[in-house]
Amino acid sequence: MRSWLKWAAAAATSLALLGGPAAAQDSFYAGKTITLIVPASAGGSYGIYAQLVADALTKHIPGNPQVLPQYVGGAGGMRASNQVANTAETDGTVIYLMHQNAPSQQLLSPDQVSYDAGKFIPIGVISALNSAMAIRNDAPATDLAGFKQKEVLIGTTGRGSYQYVIPTLLNSFQDTKFKVITTYPGTGETMLAVDRGEVHGMLSSLLTFQESRPDWVTGKGDAKLVFQIGETRDPAIPDVPLLRELAASDEEKQLYRFMSAANSIGRGLVFPAGVPEDRVAMVRTALQEVLKDPDFQALAKKRGIPLSSASAEEMKTIIDGILATPKEVVEKARQYMTEG
User: Fold this and answer.
1) What is the C-alpha to C-alpha distance for residues 300 and 52, in angstroms, rounded to an integer?
2) Could you say which residues form the signal peptide (predicted)?
3) Contact 96, 84 (CB under 8 A)
4) Helix 294-303 / helix 277-292 crossing angle, nearest 10 deg
5) Strand partners, 36
6) What's the topology of domain 31-128+263-327?
7) pLDDT band, very low/low/confident/very high, at 304 (cuts 50, 70, 90)
8) CA dihedral sign of residues 323, 328, 331, 335
């Protein structure tokens, strides 16, 4: 009996040494479901990336939990950000495909947010993405000079989003006559409104246009891209000017830089505050493995989905940098939004 006990004790010790921490990690996610909160409807680029990354994460997170997208559109992403910060489980079973404008929305619309983007726990960035404005070819105006002369209707999902802020800033600085309609629940619905002629244009990520309305990108459809938002011109649309290139003053250019910074974290994942550090580390590692996976890269390439990743540390630096924007810049942006 004593010899058997000694053998059992030795075997248990060996198993613990071989797989202690990993086994403990595996046991948490095994058989569980991770909810991936998506701050938009399924029809836009957030939905595209959510679908792409969900299955891949399942394969790489120890325990192979299911990862299921949950679409929480509305209010330019603020609805989803508020939900994640205030009601999401903090055990590691909720991941947020954070709306890229969550940090700037926090500064621009503090009365509408109940989250602190600086307290979200970065997991990593899947891709940086430029955005663009699309305008119907039969709109009353289709270029900057015309926008100053005639009213053009722009569809959006709500105040506080860059889709709302950019046209209102242009109204203030360039005397354009954009009228922003904020009644659409998601990108897909806004795009249909453009198709039907309910509105003349919209702003969205370049990828959304490439996936859903590629003829708008090439200029061969019912609409065309008139400017893009980002740090540099996207190679896919090299002849479409950057928003900041349209700036008529240093002040305007500074505000556009503030609004463009979020493109660097275009499609990034975060946890709500309070998730245990070991699970954060586990999922961060899983995401990096996903991004290096040749099968994942091949699938993204086949679907024409760009990958331009950044680490959790780099993502945090960008978020903190946006949140550290000088108050006078934020106040100017808010002032022009109000006037618009």
Assistant:
1) 8
2) 1-24
3) yes
4) 60
5) 69, 95
6) D-Maltodextrin-Binding Protein; domain 2 (3.40.190)
7) confident
8) negative
Helical pair 250-260 and 162-174, crossing angle rounded to 10 deg: 180
What is the phi-psi region of residue 7: left when phi exceeds 0, alpha when psi lies from -120 to 50, beta otherwise? Answer: alpha
Please tell me the distance from the alpha carbon of residue 327 to that of residue 199, in angstroms, as a whole number.
34
Global pTM value: 0.78
- pLDDT at position 18 is 42
CATH 3.40.190.150 in the chain is located at 31-128+263-327
Question: Which tokens sit at 269?
Answer: 């994942």
Reported residue count of the chain is 340
State the alpha helices, DSSP H only, in 88-196: 102-108, 144-147, 162-174, 187-196
Q: Which residue has the higher pLDDT, 40 or 1?
A: 40
Rounded CA separation 3/131 (Å) = 70
Residues in CB range of 210: below 8 A, 6 or more apart: 217, 236, 304
Q: Which residues pair with 181 in a beta bridge?
A: 155
Query: How many angstroms separate the Cα of 172 from the Cα of each of 248, 289, 333?
Result: 12, 45, 10
What backbone phi and psi angles, to 5 degrees, belong to 178?
Answer: -70, 135
Token pair of 31 as six digits: 């058989």
* Average per-residue pLDDT for the chain: 89
Residue 294 CB partners (closer than 8 Å, separation 6+): none
| Partners of 35 in the β-ladder | 68, 94
CB neighbour list of residue 121: distance below 8 Å, 6 or more residues apart: 270, 271, 272, 273, 275, 280
Q: Is CATH 3.40.190.10 what the domain over 131-261+329-339 is classified as, yes or no?
A: yes
